[in-house]
Structure formats: structure tokens, C-alpha cells
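Hello again, I could really use a second opinion on something today. I've been staring at a protein lately and its backbone has me curious. You're getting the sequence in one-letter code plus the fold written as C-alpha cells. I'd be grateful if you could look everything over and explain what you see. No rush at all, and the record is pasted right below:
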Amino acid sequence: MREAFLGLLNSGLTFDSFTERQKDSAKARLLPSEAYLAEHFVGALDAQRYDPSITDAYVLSQVEACGIEVTVDQLRRIKELRDENLAAYSQLGLGNSLELLF
């Protein structure tokens, strides 16, 4: 997904870009639909992380409802990478940052 959060940052947007408003409006800046789909996927994964009763099948159904195809193996790998990154982040000292390479 090149137009989801990290892809948008990579294309030149900044964190502040996500707080911008449409010209002459109080409405938030419109983002590519891919960004909203990715956030739905992330939300399903976060919900599962906080509520162990949420199954992989449910997460996959939420993702598929958005038109995103993810296999069971891909989901497993995504969760492994998330857990590895969270573990590395938890080891950082105050004021340090975690660099992710893609």
C-alpha cells in the first residue's frame, strides 16, 4: 500500500500534513482511500492485540470486507513483525527512536 500512512510519509508528507485542512474549509484534508483501508486493517489488528477473544478469522474478514487480500501466512508474518518492532521499541531509552527500514 503506497498511499497508506508510511507510504504517504515516504512520498514527502510530514506528520503535520495529517492535520491540514481543505482550502477555505474546516474539513480535514482528504487522504487517498488506501490510507483509510490501511487504518481499518491496523484497527482490526490493534483490537485483536487488546482483546484475545478476537480471532484471526475475524481480522481477515474485516480486511477482506475492505477489498484487501491477505492470506493467513501474511497475517501471521505481519503480526510477527509488529511484535518484533514493539519489543525493540520497548527497549529504547527515553529520547531515542526506532528506525525501520523498508
